[in-house]
């Protein structure tokens, strides 16, 4: 009964308006809190995207590096083969020169005799 009597009091409409205003403010506050983006989740998503891009870039860089090392290794092997072949030819030419030098010396000996 006191509650019913309190509502008929001249202050009751003012208190009701104040309570309604408080409820409305709380409702707005709740809506604002709900509508705020979840920054933690957003940062987590951004970090995941960044890490994905970084991992992709690292993989691409490693692939490029391996490709260049492979190219250089093949070029070095090719050059080593060419060098080995040139040394072999030089050795053969040296043997021919020695053979011709011996032959010339032998012919000089027969001419002077």
TrEMBL record:
Residue ranges that the Swiss-Prot or TrEMBL entry lists as coiled coil: 69-103
Molecular-function annotations in GO: structural constituent of cytoskeleton
PROSITE patterns xrefs: IF_ROD_2
Record Pfam families: Filament
Keywords for the protein's UniProt record, in alphabetical order: Coiled coil, Intermediate filament
GO biological process, one term: intermediate filament organization
Gene3D superfamilies per record: Single helix bin (1.20.5.500)
Coiled coil is among the record's keywords: yes
Annotated Gene Ontology cellular component terms: cell-cell junction; intermediate filament; sarcolemma; Z disc
Limits of the IF rod domain: 1-113
PANTHER family, per database record: DESMIN (PTHR45652:SF2), GLIAL FIBRILLARY ACIDIC PROTEIN (PTHR45652)
Name this polypeptide is given: DESM protein
Organism name: Crypturellus soui
Upper classification of the organism: Eukaryota, Metazoa, Chordata, Craniata, Vertebrata
């Amino acid at each position: 009964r006191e509650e019913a009597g309190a509502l008929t009091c001249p202050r009751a409409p003012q208190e009701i308006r104040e309570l309604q205003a408080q409820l409305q403010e709380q409702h707005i506050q709740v809506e604002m809190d709900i509508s705020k983006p979840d920054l933690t989740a957003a940062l987590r998503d951004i970090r995941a995207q960044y890490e994905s891009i970084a991992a992709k870039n690292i993989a691409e860089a490693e692939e490029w590096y391996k490709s260049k090392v492979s190219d250089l290794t093949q070029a070095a092997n090719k050059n080593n083969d060419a060098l080995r072949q040139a040394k072999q030819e030089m050795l053969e030419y040296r043997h021919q020169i020695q053979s011709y030098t011996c032959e010339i010396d032998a012919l000089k000996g027969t001419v002077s005799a």
